[in-house]
Write a structure and sequence with these properties.
Layout: E1 12-20, E2 24-33, E3 40-51, H1 56-62, E4 65-81, E5 84-101, H2 112-119, E6 125-135, H3 143-160, H4 162-170, E7 178-180, H5 190-205, E8 211-215, H6 219-245, H7 263-273, H8 291-300, H9 306-325, E9 335-338, E10 355-360
Parallel strand pairs: 8-9
Antiparallel strand pairs: 1-2, 2-3, 3-4, 4-5, 5-6, 7-10, 8-10
């Protein structure tokens, strides 16, 4: 330390270098004047690769886990002018890993392992940028109390809003927690594809995270949509049979296109194949009725069962999983399909019940 003086307008140069615990490099540089009435500080400090495993006794008590391994690096900058503090605390933790579970009455109940998985990137590094400001004249002001408060908030957010915490890094926020579907369909829409691209990127960069997928349906609206879909397939099947007889390439039934001019033809063919009782003439023969009545009768006798709804919910989850795995960068063992339940979706304002929900583990 050089140039230390009691004069108001002077500062002393500080340069301290050493090793913390005999191995972790420590460096403090900058300017100070602790003798001024308003106390002047402009310092930078850096600690590199401080082993965290010796902190296990604290981790046992307050977190409930031992620390298997991990190294801490701090890069901080503190400025005090006119008794006002501005600081930047860049914290980096490399390869942090919890060890055994420890029973402790003082340990937090928050999901610390999920928080670590959310924060740790693909290289196993956690980076926290914690700016702190305040007045030294405030008796309640404490830098480390504020930093601790921020860390507790991170843990709380991991417990209550993990997708918001994930979205803070990758964008998307809580909207990453679900994708919606059109009624009666398991097709992944363009809007859903954009969400899944963001979620896939996040999962690739957070390899410790696992995801539960649960498909849902809107029982009433999806059932109606499936009835309409099954009815349309009956008509399309008639054209498909004709295509097969003509030796032409056979597309999937849902891709068959019925032109307006040929719809009545295939509707009549489908109506004749239906097994439900049909109106008959005085001779006991099935009588001709208008197309609108044929359609009404066919729809009335087209049923979408609870099994169909469960299959739709399951197919939605399967299609979403396939999109996430398409890149080949996510281990299939990290994605779990939860058995769908009818009317199991949490009702949320302005949110379609025909969706797949995600839960991070």
């Amino acid at each position: 330390m050089s140039g230390l003086s009691a004069e108001e307008n002077t500062t002393a140069d500080v340069e301290l270098r050493g090793k913390l615990n005999d191995y972790a490099p420590l460096e403090i540089t900058g300017r100070i004047n602790p003798l001024r009435d308003d106390f002047f500080v402009d310092l930078k400090a850096r600690i590199t690769d401080l082993d965290l495993s010796p902190a296990t006794p604290y981790s046992d008590k307050y977190v409930g886990y031992t620390i298997e391994k991990g190294k801490l690096s701090l890069d901080v900058k503190y400025s005090i002018i006119g008794r006002k503090l501005d600081s930047q605390n860049d914290i980096q933790i490399d390869q942090f890993t919890f060890g055994d579970r420890v029973e402790s009455p003082t340990a937090t109940k928050l999901p610390v392992k999920l928080a670590i998985a959310l924060l740790k990137d693909r290289q196993g590094v956690i980076k926290l940028d914690l700016p702190v400001t305040g007045s030294l004249d405030d008796p309640k002001f404490s830098v480390w109390r504020i930093i601790l408060h921020v860390i507790v908030n991170l843990l709380t957010k991991a417990a209550t809003s993990p997708f918001a915490l994930l979205g803070a890094v990758f964008g998307g926020g809580e909207e990453l927690s679900y994708v919606e579907f059109d009624y009666g369909s398991a097709h992944v829409t363009d809007a859903a594809m954009k969400k899944l691209a963001t979620l896939s990127k996040a999962l690739q960069d957070r390899p410790s995270l696992k995801v539960d997928e649960e498909g849902h349906v809107d029982v009433e609206k999806d059932r109606q949509a499936l009835q309409q879909l099954f009815y349309e397939r009956k008509i399309k099947m008639q054209k498909l049979k004709e295509t097969i007889r003509n030796g032409q390439p056979v597309p999937p039934v849902d891709e068959v296109k019925i032109e307006p001019g040929e719809r009545e033809k295939y509707l009549k063919m489908a109506y004749r194949e239906e097994k439900f009782p049909k109106p008959k003439n005085f001779l006991g023969l099935v009588k001709d009725i208008p197309p609108a009545e044929m359609e009404k009768l066919m729809l009335t006798h087209t049923v979408a069962t609870d099994g169909d709804l469960r299959a739709l919910a399951s197919q939605r989850a399967t299609n979403v999983r396939d999109v996430l795995l398409k890149s080949g960068q996510i281990d299939p063992e990290r994605i779990f399909m939860v058995e769908p339940k009818l009317e199991g979706a949490e009702k949320k304002e302005k949110l379609n019940e025909s969706r797949v929900d995600f839960a991070l583990k």
